[in-house]
Amino acid sequence: MTISIWRYSHLTLAISSSIFILLAALTGIVLAFEPISNQLKPYAVKHADALSLSKTVENLQAEYDEVIHVEKDKNNFVIASVITKDGKNETFYINPFTAKKIGDIIEKAPFFKFVTNLHRSLFLKSTGRVLVGFISFLLFLMAVTGVFLIIKRQGGVKRFFSKMIKENFNQYYHIIIGRYVLIPIVIVTLSGVYLSLEKFSLLPSEKKPHDINEELLVGTPKIKVQDFSLFKTLTLNDIQRVEFPFSDAIEDYFVLKLNDKEWLVNQYNGAIISEKKQNLVALVSSWSMLLHTGQGSIMWSVILLLTCIAILFFMFSGFAMTLNRRKNSIKIKNKFSKDAAEYIILVGSETGSTYGFAKALYKALIAEGKSVFVSELNAYSSYKKAEHLVVFTSTYGDGEPPTNAKNFEKLVGHVYQNKILKYSVVGFGSLAYKGFCKYAIVVDSLLQLHQKFIPNLSLHKINNQSFDAFKDWASSWSKNKGLNLKIEKPVNTPQPKNSKLFKVVSRSMVNSDNSFLLELELAQKLKFNSGDLFKVYPKNEQRERLYSIGKINENIVLSIKKHEFGVCSGYFSKLKKNDMVLADIKQNKDFNFPVNVKEVVMISNGTGIAPFLGMINNQDSNSVKSHLFWGGRTKDSYQIYSELIDKAFYSKKLSGLYISFSKEESQKRYVQNSIVEKSDLISRVLKSDGVIMICGSIAMQNDVLETLESISESKLNRPLNLNQIKTDCY
Ligand SMILES: Cc1cc2nc3c(=O)[nH]c(=O)nc-3n(C[C@H](O)[C@H](O)[C@H](O)COP(=O)(O)O)c2cc1C
């Protein structure tokens, strides 16, 4: 069964019951405070549960003229109904050790009465109760469908609680919190349904009368009540309520309500004259009441309170995810039919973001006067005039297709194409998953085997919807087609609200690689770490530029490559000492220096070294062993970094430095060549739960990951554990 069936059921249930669930959760939050505030009242007497019934009765009989009943309320406070020495009939809380009154019975506050009515029946009496019971059941079904969604998403029951990858705040916490409040939600909903069914007498009731053993209704031997052996063995913990006999007649007896049964007890000798076990329905209903309301337990009331708050969060995050998905997946209105278009773009997308990229390509091609048709992979068909096919697809699970692509494999084998098409496949995925872009690899190989398709470009993989990586592909693809496409970023990024001023401390010369170092000072106090991102909005542009930060002596160090037409890099390359820059810092916790590890390997090429320049100069030299791999073009490329690296090396903050030059006559090697040479070091770090950080170009990242994978396979006999890899590549 696909993930979307569970998602649609989950969503349909949520939409159909949202208003009622909102009301139930809000009123539930208020009602959770009632048992909490009751429990905090000073009527609980320490160790009262351990007091014997005989002692309690003795104390009561000494204090009052007559005792009518004693009981424990839902908060476990002891209540006595008595005739006092001055002849008044009163009911109040007592201290069972002295039998003295300690307070008046708590009356339900009118506000709580109002909210309880709203929660139970929405002021609609019986109709409302049926409705609330039904909604409770829907919420239970939502919890069940949610469980299946998590299982599907996590890739199996066994991985239900395993670590999740944080791709999006709402999605991440919807699942994380969902896993924790699942059990309370199931309890609250099922108990709610049960209480509703009970109210409508829909449950079997078994009201059996007592079967009194007449032979035991005798007045001898006459024993004092406090000496009844039964009363001596029972404590207040065992008792819910004791009704005292009305008169001295032998037919009047004590009625003892225990937690699971009721006893009638001879008032003269303490013999049990009848026993009635509590039936299952009554037992379940008393538990349902306790579990649904939280009465008697502050801890459970707090859990119920948190559960109601979590339900509100689920509503918010669930709808936010749905809106986002819908926004992303707004289908493209094709100007051309499938048989009239020269370019066909087929999309495989689960949550819609890949459509954004398809739209960008569609718009750029239309602007160039091309005929284009966009559709989903499931709608693969024959295309009369098509010359070019582009497939954009995401991956889910272990190489599984997104929902709208699951029929493609079958269709591609059956549908006849009358012309040969040149194709290119772009995979959208995340390096955080084991099978990076695995479904795109499947599609690419299906097309390779097909007689009617010839490849244009090799498969291109894009991590975390990187627009820059997409632009790289689009530029190679359009060059290949002889086009000059202007690709716009799918979603506009808003202008920054919280821009801050940064002062230029120094800027290095631009080296032969067109790279330079920029050091900035903060004009105001701001907490940040190496690996966080420096966020700049170039003038007249909506799209932000992000640079990885190195933090050295509280200053920001950026390593920037000047591009020929780069607005931002051009601006930075002209900055002088004391110039001011307007920008912001974006936290990037996933790429901060790891804590609680013994060894860290940092791998970078080109300007990707910036965060590592900060990390090697900041971290405590004794606690973590750091090794730096860096790849550049020539020796000259290295000069701008050498001072900061030497400083770290000589102060023993850096344990190993491995540099490779790809364009130097004496050694033409890439960073991955040095990694292979140091495979013992890499395998040791992997084995000892160390962390490998990668920063630089996507191409370098892909090659490095392949190298690390083969080291892990050959030296440790296991696949590379991606939880040990942190990346920040562009
Ligand atoms: C539950 C889940 C599973 C994923 N599994 C993979 C995977 O196995 N391999 C991969 O490369 N990406 C995986 N991804 C990442 C998505 O493919 C990636 O975020 C993609 O850009 C989403 O595109 P879409 O919004 O068009 O579906 C997964 C994402 C999620 C939420």
Task: Please tag this protein with its features.
730 residues; alpha/beta; OB fold (Dihydrolipoamide Acetyltransferase, E2P); 8-stranded antiparallel beta sheet; 7-stranded antiparallel beta sheet; elongated; binds flavin mononucleotide; Flavodoxin/NO_synth; transmembrane; Flavoprotein-like_sf
Description:
With 730 residues, this protein is an alpha/beta fold. The chain has five domains: 3-39 and 112-204 and 291-323; 48-104, OB fold (Dihydrolipoamide Acetyltransferase, E2P) (Beta Barrel); 214-279; 329-481, 3-Layer(aba) Sandwich (Rossmann fold), CATH 3.40.50; 500-729, Rossmann fold (3-Layer(aba) Sandwich). 39% of the residues lie in helices and 21% in strands. The chain has an eight-stranded antiparallel β-sheet with strand order 4-3-2-1-5-6-7-8, covered by helices on one side. A seven-stranded antiparallel β-sheet has the order 18-17-21-15-16-20-19. Strands 9, 10, 11, 12, 13 and 14 form a six-stranded parallel β-sheet that branches. Strand 19 and strand 20 (555-561) form a beta hairpin. Helix 1 (3-39) runs antiparallel to helix 3 (110-121). The model has no long low-confidence stretch (mean pLDDT 89). It binds flavin mononucleotide. This is NADPH--hemoprotein reductase. It holds the Pfam family NAD_binding_1. The chain crosses the membrane at residues 12-33, 130-151, 172-197, 298-323. InterPro entries: FAD-bd_FR_type, Flavdoxin-like, Flavodoxin/NO_synth, Flavoprot_Pyr_Nucl_cyt_Rdtase, Flavoprotein-like_sf, FNR_nucleotide-bd, OxRdtase_FAD/NAD-bd, PepSY-ass_TM.
